[in-house]
Amino acid sequence: MKKLLSIVLAVFILSGVGYAQQTIKIGGIFDLTGATGDVGAPYAIAARDYINYVNKHGGVNGRKIELIDTDYAYKIPQAVSAYKDQASKGVIAILGWGTGDTEAMAPMIATDKIPYISASYSEHLVFDKTPYNFIAGTTYSDQARLALQWIKDNWKDKSRAPRVALLYNDTGFGRSPIQDAEDFAKKIGVEVVDKEIIGLRDLDATTQLLNMQKKDPDFAINQHTVMATATILKDAKKLGLKNKFIGLNWTFSEKLVEMAGDAADGFMAPMPFSFWTEDKIKGVQFMRKVRKEMTGKDDAQPVNYTQGFISAYLLVEALKKAGNTLTGENIKKVLESNKFDMMGLCADIAYKPELRKPNLSAKMYIIKKGKIEPLTGLLKY
Length: 381
Known about the structure:
Layout: H1 2-14, E1 24-30, H2 37-56, E2 65-71, H3 76-88, E3 94-95, H4 99-112, E4 116-118, E5 133-135, H5 140-153, E6 163-168, H6 172-175, H7 178-188, E7 191-197, H8 206-215, E8 219-223, H9 226-239, E9 244-247, H10 254-260, E10 268-271, H11 282-295, H12 303-322, H13 328-337, E11 339-340, E12 349-350, E13 363-368, E14 371-378
Parallel strand pairs: 1-2, 1-3, 3-4, 4-5, 6-7, 6-8, 8-9
Antiparallel strand pairs: 10-13, 11-12, 13-14
C-alpha cells in the first residue's frame, strides 16, 4: 500500500498538477495597437512589469502568476474572442480595457463569475447589474461632475451662468459620461451650449471647433485619449479660441505635452492618479523601484503606466487576501469586503456589493510651460 501511494504521489508531482506547482492564471485584454493604443500600451506594460515583479519575489502565497494576455486592438469582437479563449484556459480574473467591450461582455462575465478589473471607468459598470466588474479609478461621470463643480465654484461673472461645451468620441468610452454631465450641469446651474463628436484618430478637428466657437463656451470638457486631444488643442490654438479646455483622465498625460507642445499650456484635468514625477509619494517610489528592477531602467513613464500598475496591484492584493480559495466568487467577496491601501498612487479603494465605485477622489492638474502641476487639493461635488 505504501509503495502504491508513493507511485501515485510521484505521478501527481511530475504531472505538474500538484498544488505547489500550479500557477495562478489571470487574463489580460489590452489595446496595444488600436484606436486607444497610445494610452493602452503603457497601461499593459505596467501590468506586465508588476506581475513579473511579483513572480520574481515568490508569487502569491507561494504560487506564480501566469498572465495570459491579448492585444485586441480596440475591437469588440476581438475582445469577446479573447475573453472566451482566456476563460477556456482557466483564468480566475482578468485585467480588461475598454468601455464598449467591457460593457458588452458584462453578462458573460457575470455568468462565468470571473472578476474583471477594466480600465474603463464607466459609471455603467459600478451597479449591481454588473456584479463581477470592478473599476480602479474615479468614474468618468464623477470626473465630469468634479470638473463642472470646479467651474461653478470658480466662476466670477455673477451676471450669467458659465457656458460649457462637451467634446467626445462616438464610442462607448466617449459617450459614457455625457448624459451624466448634462444632468449635473443643469442641477448646479452650468449651461451646456454645445456637443461635438471628434474621432479618436481624427487628424483635424477644425470643423467641430468652429461649430463650437459659434456657441461661445467658456469651457470645453473633453473625453478622448491623448492623440485626439493633441489634435484638438493644436487646432484650437491655430483658430485662436479663447475658451479653456478641461479633459477627463485619458486626455491628460506627459505624452500630451510631447504631442501638443505649447498648445497644451493651460489644459486642465481632474486626475485620480499620481504622476511619475511625484516621487515623494510612497506608491510612486515603489512603482519606480519595480520598473527599475524589472527593466534595469528608471525611465519616466506616463500616468497611464500608473493606471495599469494600480489595476495589477489591486488584483494581486485581492489574490493574496483570498488565500487558497482562488475562485471568482471568493475574489469578488474579498474585493467587496476590504479596503485596499494604494500607497498614494490613487485614493484607497473600497467597494460595496451594491455600488462598486472604488472612491470619489481627484485633484485638478494643469499644464504650465510644459510641466504638469497640481492646481487644487481633492475636489468635491
